[in-house]
Amino acid sequence: MNQASIAATETHHAAIPAWTWVAPLLASILLALKFLHVVPSDAALVLVFAAVFLGASVFSAVHHAEVLALKLGEPFGSILLAIAVTVIEVALIVSIMASGAEGSGSVARDTVFAAVMIVLNGVVGLCLIVGGRRHFEQTFQLQGASSALAVLGTLAALALILPNHTLTVLGPSYSPLQAMFVGLVSLMLWAVFVFVQTVKHRAYFLDAPADDVESDSTVAEHHAKPSDRESLACLGLLLVSLTAVVLLAKTLSPSLDRAIDLAGLPHTFVSVVIAAIVLLPEGIAAAKSALKNQLQNSINLALGSAIASIGLTIPAVAVVSLVLDQQLSLGISAANTTLLVLTLFVSTLTLGTGRTTVLQGAIHLVIFAVFLLVSAIP
Do residues 167 and 296 touch, judged by C-beta distance below 8 A? Predict the structure, then answer.
């Protein structure tokens, strides 16, 4: 057996290492004990274990997503992770809205805006920095990136900017009819994008032919697909891991609220922290792809998750707001509008040539740092 076959066999058998199912299992046990009131949720030791299991579940989710991406191929693997994370994010937002807690009417806006800024500036900037540092200049498919960015810009403007300028309902809100219509067209646009990405023009979202020849180990890694049984197991473990991430983040949120209050930060900063935690699996997976010189996969993850975050969240919260007869605040502030427009403008320049360097990554990280500053000190 040659070296490539050995490497492929080792990759195949190591598809589900023990830690990747032990971590979500222990997290699930801790959550069950908490919900059954066996252990106090605010005890210091419980919070420490929750934080540890949260980090372990994030890395577990990344591993299972990578295995599934290997099985399905691109861009299906990126789409799967984006949808899984977004659906759970929507469930968390809807649960907060249904609770009627303070600020529940704006939690969707704050979370979606934070997710878009984290993805387009934090994740993309990190990927371009780490990838450019190792590979100097990286390439991707211009057609796919420009198509995704056009969809994202449209969704962001309809969901986060236009509500500030309508007349039927003054303020940062749509009327019920407007909210349902915008939610419907957002869902339809997301569905059309997924169809184009996976069927009609799938080639636009695949890695462009590389100039250099890959090593035997990289080729083996690309072709060592897991079995159907392992893939199904990874799919289940991915969902369990992502659910554990969200529920543990919600468990830690009261302590986070107190810490933010003690630090003198605005309450809306909680949405930034929770969005960052939920997006960690995608962020880590995207950065690892950039390190492997697979920038197309990184862009698929980043832009796809941002599109899904708006395209799936807005329809869901629009329906929930009507059912609960709750005013839904969607329009962002003037400062955040400036940051969003700047982000979309810079992203157009970054993704408009098909080639990137560390300079573009540095620009996105600067915008991300300013977003964090404005979020902490409005």
Answer: no
Q: What pLDDT does residue 277 have?
A: 78
β-bridge mates for residue 166, sequence order: none
Q: Tell me if the bond preceding 75 is cis, omega within 30° of 0.
A: yes
DSSP 8-class letter at 173 = B
Q: Considering just the CA atoms, what is the radius of gyration of the chain in Å?
A: 21
Tell me which residue of 72, 80, 37 sits closest to 239, measured CA to CA: 80
Distance CA 189, CA 203 (A): 20
Model-level pTM? 0.79
Q: How high does pLDDT run on average in the chain?
A: 82
Helix, strand, coil percent values for the chain (each to nearest 5): 80, 0, 20
Give the whole-angstrom CA distance, residue 182 versus residue 220: 46
User: Measured between alpha carbons, how far is 86 from 94 in angstroms, rounded to an integer?
Assistant: 12
Name the β-bridge partners of 79: none
198-214 confidence digits (pLDDT tens)? 888 888 888 765 544 34
Gap between the Cα atoms of 246 and 263, Å rounded: 24
Q: What is the pLDDT of residues 172-193, one digit of tens each?
A: 889 989 999 999 999 999 989 9
Burial 158-173 (b: 16+ CB within 10 A, else e): bbbbebbeeeeeeebb
pLDDT confidence of residue 13? 42
Give the C-alpha separation, 193 to 251, whole Å.
35
CA distances (Å), origin 115, targets 200, 220, 241, 252, 309: 28, 35, 19, 19, 7
- Tokens representing residue 226 in the block: 């897991």
The tokens for 374 are 């404005």
- In this structure, the number of other CB atoms found within 10 A of the CB of residue 207 comes to 17
Query: What separation, in Å, do the N-terminal and C-terminal C-alpha atoms of the chain show?
Result: 62
DSSP state of 204: G
